[in-house]
Amino acid sequence: MLPRLVSSLRLRPSAAPLAAATRCASSGNVDIRVPLNFWAGKRMRSQEKRNKEPVYEPATGRVLCHLEPCGASEVDQAVKDAKSAFGHWSKMSGMERARIMIEAALIIESRREEIAEMEVVNNGKSITEARLDVDSARLCIEYYAGLASTLAGQHVQLPGGSFAYTRREPLGVCVGIGAWNYPFQIATFKAISNSMVFKPSPVTPVTAVMLAEIYAKAGAPEGLFNVVQGGQETGSLLCHHPDVAKVSFTGSVPTGKKIMEMASKGVKPVTLELGGKSPLLIFEDSDLENAVKGALMANFLSQGQVCSNGTRVFVQKHILPEFVEEVVKRTQAIEIGDPLAESTRMGALVSQPHLHRVLEFVEQAKKEGATVLCGGEPFVPSDPKLKGGYYMMPCVLGDCTDKMTCVKEEIFGPVMSVLSFDTEEEVLRRANDTTMGLAAGVFTRDVRRAHRVVEHLKAGSCFINNYNITPVEVPFGGFKMSGIGRENGQVTIEYYSQLKTVFVEMGDVDSLF
Ligand SMILES: NC(=O)c1ccc[n+]([C@@H]2O[C@H](COP(=O)([O-])OP(=O)(O)OC[C@H]3O[C@@H](n4cnc5c(N)ncnc54)[C@H](O)[C@@H]3O)[C@@H](O)[C@H]2O)c1
Ligand SMILES: C[N+](C)(C)CCCC=O
Predict the structure, then answer these.
(1) Rounded CA gap, 204 and 65, in Å?
(2) What is the span of the domain harbouring residue 243?
(3) Among residues 274, 308, 325, which one ends one of the domains?
(4) Tens-place pLDDT, residues 115-168
(5) Measured between alpha carbons, how far is residue 15 from residues 4, 207, 348 in Å?
(6) Among the options 273, 326, 424, 487, which is catalytic?
(7) Measuring from each residue's beta carbon to the nearest atom of ligand 1, which residues come in under 6 Å?
(8) How much is the pTM?
């Protein structure tokens, strides 16, 4: 068992001592005072005096720490370290790199609880979900460790005994810019090869630096994974940096466009994991129990703050009343409250402004004629320490139509819009009527219909008879404005490497001159 990150936390006097407790954190009891940047192999403070911004604990609304944004000098330093690490890392054999990655995965496994708790404290999601996020981060590293020594090119035979071969080569220093909904997982998914400077969302700065410590502890070259904190300005410095080879971004569509524009100045490739407004199609021959469970998984994970959520739930007319009754019953039964409590299934939304935005979407839906079938209001837990937290009751909206704002825009909160349909042709047309294309799902017992429907759905990740399942072996990413490139799966190697072609002449040069 490795030592816990005692230095990273300060527990308030009422809290149990870290080492002695099975549970190190409890909501309202964690203060973070240590630096959250990481380069030169250690946590670093920002060098210059800049405005510090408060970071909140969503479960309680109290200040957790202060963000120290990085400027040009810190970004330069982190990129320099990443460049130096890349020199070492790219010379190592696949087996050597795999050994370090496996070691990192083992450390993550041993610190699972601690990482998950910090994710909860900073993000507000339930501990049950946070543990699964940490597991999928670990599995991702294990998966790419397995692939590290399998990279191979192609041999192409040419006339006269000449031949060509291709080599997969790493890119260099990559920048990762993350969203706040899966802070640790996003950092891990982006750091699968090359060296990286990662900028977390300023809303959730706490756990990416733990990944940096883990890679360092696992024996990675100093500077392989660095963290700089900050918002737009820091992100912009990273995107424009001349020594950066690629930008991998997870976040909203408007920011994704800006990232692409900035990267284009240096002709840098981008991976963009952006937003969605995904459809879930439920046909009348579905197993209703599974369809209802699928709709809940498609809408309420991580307080509805999931890019791939199937928030437009199209239900075939005959089963609509039955479906709605069951979905509402189960939504009302979701336990909301302290995200660190084992029984909680819905914690707090990430911030006060975001909670307001989501509640406003519900108000707008009502004005446009939708019926609130349940939820859609703030939730105030009975525990006094949670009263300042950002909770709401998960919401199901009925009587929705395609033109409503709640059906057109990404809400990014626990709000499901239910629509009805008659025919397969009609629902496909309506499901695809969006500028986004991240995910889609279909529930039916008819295997031919399932594959036919999926073939016509314009989305990068499609689910048949399930939803929001993302095994790391499977590529994930969007069509249309939902993004460019993929994360996870074997194909992602192509997005984080470049192809070199080598031509070998076995005869004489046949010159035209
Ligand atoms: N497709 C996916 O895999 C995926 C995963 C998670 C979240 N998302 C999407 O992310 C969005 C929610 O996350 P968010 O609110 O953090 O997104 P956001 O776009 O506001 O911010 C994302 C990141 O970009 C940074 N940033 C903002 N402006 C920038 C600029 N001008 N230059 C450089 N960096 C800048 C932010 O500091 C943050 O780190 C939703 O739309 C959601 O669908 C997508
Ligand atoms: C693992 N999930 C739930 C599919 C989340 C993917 C990342 C998008 O927000």
Answers:
(1) 10
(2) 37-274
(3) 274
(4) 999 999 999 999 999 999 999 999 999 999 999 999 999 999 999 999 999 999
(5) 16, 21, 21
(6) 273
(7) 177-182, 199, 201-202, 231-232, 235-236, 239, 250-252, 255, 258-259, 273-276, 307, 410, 412, 438, 478, 483
(8) 0.95
